[in-house]
């Protein structure tokens, strides 16, 4: 975890909250295997609530879930599956941003693709043997390219990014048609959002020109949630990128989460709002604390107070 991410966690600890960081990908790094990730998120909460001897947490403590980008998918799906899979949990809110609701859309958006798609294919293949078999059968017949592909597999995201950059990963396959097979389409569908309707309040924040996933997919998901009676504050930012919203949006999500823990009741139904930027203020910076602010500023080489809107 980088120092900016660590700083954000310090901020939550400064509030006296118990923080659970969930390894939703598991031992096989099943990136984008969101259904197993959602179960892992809910099981992780269960494990935390059983830790009263160590943490002093109450077995029925109130919980808020948070996630961004690839972390938003298992978190949102956990919110969808909570009623059926973990009805006993007292989850009072879910704050997510940078959603990737439809895996097929994400794949189409990334083609001819960079390292991100490669990581997604590997992650899903580690969870689904059928996809692994189809992927292996579609690799380049060039022995050198095939060997290079295998060397990339154990790399983490940072190393993949620096090694591959914007190289087209299609060059490692003789065909990408395996992604359109019925079996793979079913895998995409089972790991996309929209399986059920969350029953807890939600804060969803997005960039109107998110480069990772078409914003219309999130618009459609939120519209369906709201039609089915969900309670959502959907906040759009017109001048933020997927990357910049990682920080500024998370500050908003933390403030929203604090309101839920403080007992503030969110208005019923759905509210949509649009801003140029994700607004921050001195209260949100104080929420993080000086140590966290310093860590974030060093990581991103910025002066946070200058970003206040």
TrEMBL record:
The keyword Hydrolase applies. Keywords: Hydrolase. InterPro entries: AB_hydrolase_fold, Lipase_secreted. One of its GO terms (biological process) is lipid catabolic process. One of its GO terms (molecular function) is triacylglycerol lipase activity. Transmembrane segments: none annotated. Pfam families: LIP (PF03583). The keyword Hydrolase applies. This is Lipase. It comes from Aspergillus tamarii. The lineage of its organism: Eukaryota, Fungi, Dikarya, Ascomycota, Pezizomycotina.
């Amino acid at each position: 975890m980088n120092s900016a991410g660590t700083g954000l966690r310090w901020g939550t600890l400064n509030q006296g909250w118990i923080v659970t960081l969930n390894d939703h990908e598991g031992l096989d790094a099943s990136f984008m295997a969101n259904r197993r990730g959602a179960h892992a998120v809910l099981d992780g909460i269960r494990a935390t609530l059983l830790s009263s001897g160590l943490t002093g947490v109450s077995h029925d403590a109130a919980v808020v879930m948070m996630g961004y980008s690839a972390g938003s998918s298992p978190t949102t799906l956990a919110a969808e599956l909570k009623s059926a899979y973990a009805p006993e949990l007292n989850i009072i809110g879910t704050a997510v941003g940078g959603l990737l609701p439809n895996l097929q859309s994400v794949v189409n958006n990334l083609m001819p693709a960079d390292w991100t798609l490669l990581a997604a294919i590997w992650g899903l293949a580690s969870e689904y043997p059928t996809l692994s078999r189809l992927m292996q059968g579609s690799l380049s017949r060039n022995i050198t390219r095939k060997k290079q592909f295998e060397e990339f597999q154990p790399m983490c995201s940072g190393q993949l990014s620096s090694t591959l950059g914007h190289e087209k990963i299609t060059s490692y396959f003789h065909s990408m048609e395996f992604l359109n097979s019925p079996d793979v389409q079913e895998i995409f569908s089972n790991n996309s959002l929209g399986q059920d309707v969350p029953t807890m309040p939600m804060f969803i924040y997005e960039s109107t020109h998110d480069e990772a996933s078409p914003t219309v997919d999130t618009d459609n998901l939120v519209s369906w949630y709201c039609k089915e009676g969900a309670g959502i504050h959907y906040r759009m930012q017109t001048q933020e990128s997927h990357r910049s919203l990682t920080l500024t949006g998370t500050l908003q999500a933390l403030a929203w989460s604090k309101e839920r823990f403080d007992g503030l009741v969110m208005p019923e139904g759905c509210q949509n709002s649009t801003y140029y930027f994700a607004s921050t203020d001195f209260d949100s910076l104080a929420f993080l604390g000086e140590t966290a602010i310093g860590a974030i500023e060093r990581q991103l080489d910025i002066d946070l107070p200058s970003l206040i809107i």
